[in-house]
Amino acid sequence: MSMPTFERPMPVKTPTTAPFWDALAEHRVVIQYSPSLQSYVFYPRVRAPRTFADDLEWREISGMGTLYSYTVARRPVGPHFADAVPHLLAIVEWDEGPRFSTELVDVEPENIEIGMRVKPVFCDYPEHDVTMLRYAPADR
């Protein structure tokens, strides 16, 4: 008996998130900046957090960051990820401030360290018309 194959869930672009996904398709990272907060914000939203100002602007960032936290999932987080173990789930703190939930690639679990520099890796899924943002050690 063979195991059923599952297609991984993919993000759905909305009018609010479209600039983020469109930039990733071009292998660029753009996030929102709030002049009222004088800081970058992430996740995409309609109004600035805390001030509720309607002043959010899309700005390109380097995408470079520091590994803030991670976990090594040795059991699939769901049937869609059965082929992805160990699954390296991570939170990257961008140089510009916000944190981003992602996956680590091109690294063995034993070589992962909190505080390590990481660089963006753009993973294209043309069949879904989406590009996912992953991270790899910056020294590679």
UniProtKB/TrEMBL annotation:
Superkingdom of origin organism: Bacteria
Residues annotated as domain ChsH2 C-terminal OB-fold: 58-122
Protein name (database record): ChsH2 C-terminal OB-fold domain-containing protein
